[in-house]
Design a protein that fits this description.
Shape of chain B: globular
Shape of chain A: globular
Oligomer: heterodimer
Largest interface: A-B, 77 and 90 residues
Number of helices of chain A: 26
Organism (chain B): Petrotoga olearia DSM 13574
InterPro entries (chain B): ComplexI_Subunit1, NADH_UbQ_OxRdtase_su1/FPO
Membrane topology (chain B): Multi-pass membrane protein
Keywords (chain B): Membrane, Transmembrane, Transmembrane helix
Subcellular location (chain B): Membrane
Chain lengths: ~625, ~300
């Protein structure tokens, strides 16, 4: 199916979903699985298709066009795959939705609209579809816990959208075209315009990717969105920001345009500024994630930190670091979606995502636990999962350029991620099982499917990262970057190589040795959860024995009085609010005499100076 | 073939480290003016623990112990042991550091799986301490990797041998060596950085529930982790060398660690973090900056 008809069909499917859900809630939800699968299957055919142009529609002198490209395909396949897998959760949550029909419709609508962004040939198409995605997700978020969340989301998203819109219109007034390729050709000869365009457009990407100082919407929106939408928000939609970053730094070739600009440690200062923002996001995201008591907010802050990795990787624009950044998009999509799904599964059975109310669920929900475990191993970047591959490549990229301050942030975030990902593992799944959860069961098999598939993909691309890096090298070649060198399961970088297969085999051997030692010795005697050493205290109540609240209290105390950009935003919001109240009390007062006063003022002005205004 | 060499390294490493551990107990005893146990005491401890009956708190409790030992053994296979490298080219610094985390994660998981609150506190402290010591250490090595263009540990050891004894990084990059040595104390969880274990405060923390074969395996895990951690320092700062030289250097580093921990008192956990994020992190950044921007102390 041609790409433009796929897009149109997908949008029609979303309308069909709406009416099907009106007829029967369950039917409509199953139809979201079908619709996303439909898009996924047809999209797969475009894997090696590059440069075919599709016309979406024309009006006046403008036409909306799509063009197939390998980076567009890479992003869209991740997006649709995440949506498809998460949609297996929809039938079980739909009963709890306030407005199921519009939820299902917007769900399909938002994923299909993203195709328009990733395959856009011109900025106009990109902007139109960008807004479509923003608006559809805007209406889904308040279906969860909070309406205020979507206000915050929209405010920050709008800053980015306006900035991008301004830049696109300005570029149009200069070059009389929206076409991305001809704009980038024109920009090469005018680097000063390019600096402005680079920053103005990338703000939209930063806002979407949750980069400091625009990260504040993520914990609010991810934490309050419906449990079925948080995974796609974090795993999928956030990656649109990464695409914008890729668009303005690689597709518009900044390494070429900025080549004569001031360099900081061998990197043009424009790209370095963006990298510094990524580094700050890593540190802020890590420190804030460590503090959270709510599992969903914790994962949202980890998304902020991982967005920093992706941004740094992309901004490096080199052989290995860039490949790592691109690969991290996939890894983080799978891992964070799996984490959100696991927490969603827990919430489905227990009704809470607050970590200190849970505990000991491993015996009740083993599959969910396994999915969560594999996801966090990937987030923490431990072999043999795919998270290690991308982090290793990003470290190599940084080491080859010697960017030590950025590297400091990435190391900090990488080690810090052990701390925050371990917390839900210990407090939700391990530890003491509360008696009120003693009847909790594993989620239905259909809800286990996405978690299992995501875990398998994470491990598969961890053992065979070269399968994906092969494709990424094609992306690099098409963007005029030296492609990453891969040979079998070996991956080469400037400082040597590594072979994920050998590492996995060695790990398996090590594990076998340990298992042999374990199983050849005397069998252990199982004991009850409460039967543990308590220093002579008598504790009969599992809840008070479970160590979950204020988990990292001694560490949190160290940065208790940290400066916060939220407070700054709150001050601005307060001022805007005050101004609004001022306007209201002056112009829209319920007191009749105020109205009469303004009417008489206006009449007086019109009478005396009306002809001059 | 390389797997066979790996097995051999694991076996020699086990014999060496466990005997050395016994000797260190003797050294500590001399400082404390005690007699101390015989040098083979740690062997006896391990085999006694393995042969005793134990308790289990469920699947994850067992699985975590196996993952801890298995992951640490796998890590040790990749470390250059003297001039023996089992997997050529794979002795990558980042691979070693991250594989070592498998062991820590396994142990953390297992200890939390016991459901003991003391274990939970111990794990919290261990992870916090890890954030403290890893970052300065990695920055120092980051500078090294940048200037030599290799992250292979055996090659980093090799470049130091070219200028004789004064080519060792401990002399050419003294600030980095100081940071790495302090980080090594943190990695080994020895006093003054034994906060996660702290027997007098949190009843041995992660270890509180273990006995019998589980405990024996965790002692083994600790020995292999020590092999990796001290080995990293010897390879990165003392120039590695052939097997005999390597073992001698290893012995001196480990004894120095023992001398320090035999006479120190314990840090509190927040003090560990503030300590590492004070002087050592500044020193490590200064060292990395010197190496990257001036090339001073780099062997050519």
């Amino acid at each position: 199916m041609a790409l433009n008809s796929l897009l149109i069909t997908g949008l029609l499917l979303s309308v069909l979903t709406f009416f099907l859900t009106k007829i029967n809630k369950k039917l409509g939800s199953y139809f979201t699985i079908f619709s996303t699968l439909f898009v996924l299957i047809f999209l797969f055919g475009y894997m090696n298709d590059v440069g075919t142009v599709f016309n979406l529609g024309s009006f006046g002198g403008f036409s909306l066009q799509l063009v197939s490209s390998n980076y567009g395909w890479f992003f869209s396949i991740i997006m649709v795959l995440t949506y498809f897998l998460v949609s297996f959760f929809n039938p079980y949550w739909i009963e709890k939705m306030v407005n199921p029909a519009s939820y299902n419709m917007l769900y399909v609508f938002s994923v299909v609209s993203t195709l328009g962004i990733f395959f856009a040939k011109d900025f106009l198409t990109l902007f139109i579809f960008w807004e479509m995605v923003v608006w559809s997700s805007l209406f889904i978020i308040p279906l969860g816990k909070s309406r205020k969340a979507s206000v915050v989301y929209y405010t920050i998203s709008t800053i980015g959208s306006f900035s991008m819109f301004f830049a696109v219109m300005y570029l149009y007034s200069l070059f009389q075209t929206f076409d991305i390729e001809s704009i980038s050709q024109n920009l090469i000869s005018s680097p000063n315009t390019a600096v402005m365009a680079y920053f103005a457009i990338i703000i939209a990407g930063l806002a979407k990717l949750g980069i400091f100082p625009f990260h504040t919407w993520l914990p609010i929106a991810h934490g309050n969105a419906p449990h079925t939408f948080s995974p796609v928000l974090s795993g999928g939609l956030v990656k649109m920001g990464a695409f914008i970053a890729l668009l303005v730094s690689a597709i518009i070739p900044t390494s070429q345009i900025f080549s004569n600009h001031i360099r900081i440690i061998g990197v043009p200062y424009e790209n370095y500024i963006i990298m510094v923002l990524g580094a700050i996001s890593i540190i802020v995201g890590t420190l804030m994630a460590i503090k959270q008591e709510d599992a969903k907010r914790l994962i949202a802050y980890s998304t902020v930190a991982n967005g920093g990795y992706i941004l740094i990787g992309i901004s490096l624009l080199d052989q290995v670091g860039f490949a790592g950044g691109i690969m991290h998009i996939f890894n983080h999509a799978m891992a964070s979606a799996a984490m959100f799904l696991a927490i969603g599964a827990v919430a489905y059975r227990t009704g809470t995502t607050n970590m200190n109310e849970l505990g000991g669920l491993i015996k009740k929900m083993p599959v969910t636990f396994a999915a969560y475990l594999i996801a966090i191993i990937s987030i923490a970047g431990i072999p043999p999962t795919s998270g290690f591959a991308s982090k290793w490549l990003i470290f190599q990229g940084l080491a080859s350029k010697g960017l030590m301050f950025i590297a400091f942030a990435t190391f900090f975030g990488s080690i810090g991620s052990f701390m925050y990902v371990f917390r839900p593992l210990a407090t939700v799944f391990l530890g003491q099982l509360s008696p009120k959860h003693k009847d909790v069961k594993e989620v239905p098999f259909m809800m286990q499917i996405p978690m299992l598939v995501m875990s398998l993909l994470t491990i598969y691309f961890g053992v065979f990262p070269s399968e994906m890096l092969g494709f990424i090298s094609k992306i690099q070649a098409s963007l005029n970057i030296v492609p990453i060198s891969v040979e079998g399961s070996k991956i080469y970088s400037f400082s040597g190589m590594w072979d994920s297969l050998v590492i996995t085999v060695a790990f398996v051997i090590g594990f076998i040795i340990a298992a042999l030692i374990f199983y050849t010795h005397k069998k252990a005697q199982p004991v009850d959860q409460m039967n543990t050493y308590t220093s002579g205290e008598f504790i009969y109540d599992p809840e008070s024995y479970h160590y979950a609240k204020n988990y990292y209290a001694p560490f949190e105390r160290l940065y208790k009085n940290h400066p916060s950009v939220e407070k700054f935003y709150d001050v601005i919001a307060l001022r805007v609010n005050e101004f609004g109240r001022l306007v209201r009390s002056w112009f829209f007062s319920s007191n009749a005499s105020v109205g009469v006063f303004w009417i008489s003022v206006i009449i007086t002005i019109a009478f005396f100076w009306g002809d001059k205004i | 073939m390389s797997y066979l060499i790996a097995f051999m390294i694991v076996f020699i490493g086990f014999l060496w480290q466990v005997s050395l551990d016994g000797i260190q107990r003797k050294v500590t005893a001399k400082i404390h003016r005690r007699v101390g146990p015989p040098w083979y005491q740690t062997f006896m401890d391990i085999f006694k623990a393995l042969s005793k009956s134990s308790i289990t708190h469920g699947f994850i409790y067992d699985f975590g112990v196996m993952m801890a030992l298995g992951g640490t053994i796998a890590t040790f296979m990749f470390l250059p042991f003297g001039n023996i490298v089992a997997f050529n080219g794979l002795d990558n610094f980042f691979v070693v550091v991250y594989l070592l985390a498998i062991g820590s994660l396994g142990m953390a998981m297992s200890a939390s799986g016991s459901g003991n609150a003391w274990a939970g506190i111990g794990i919290m402290r261990a992870l916090t301490q890890m954030l403290a010591y890893e970052v300065p250490f990695m920055i120092v090595v980051f500078g090294m990797i940048h200037v030599y263009g290799t992250s292979s540990l055996s090659e980093l050891a090799h470049v130091q041998q070219m200028n004789g004894i004064f080519g060792w990084h401990i002399f050419t990059m003294p600030l980095g060596a100081i940071v790495a040595f302090i980080s090594l104390l943190g990695m080994l969880s020895k006093v003054p950085f034994d906060t996660p274990i702290a027997p007098t405060e949190i009843a041995s923390g992660p270890m509180v529930e273990y006995g019998g074969k589980h405990f024996g395996m965790l002692i083994l895990q600790h020995e292999f982790a020590t092999l990796v951690e001290v080995g990293l320092f010897v390879n990165l700062f003392l120039g590695g060398g052939n097997l005999i030289e390597y073992l001698i250097k290893y012995f001196f580093v480990y004894t120095l660690v023992t001398l320090i921990y035999a006479v120190s008192a314990r840090f509190r956990i927040e003090n560990v973090v503030t300590f590492f994020y004070g002087v050592p992190i500044v020193l490590s950044l200064v060292q990395a900056a010197i190496v990257i921007f001036t090339g001073l102390g780099v062997n050519v």
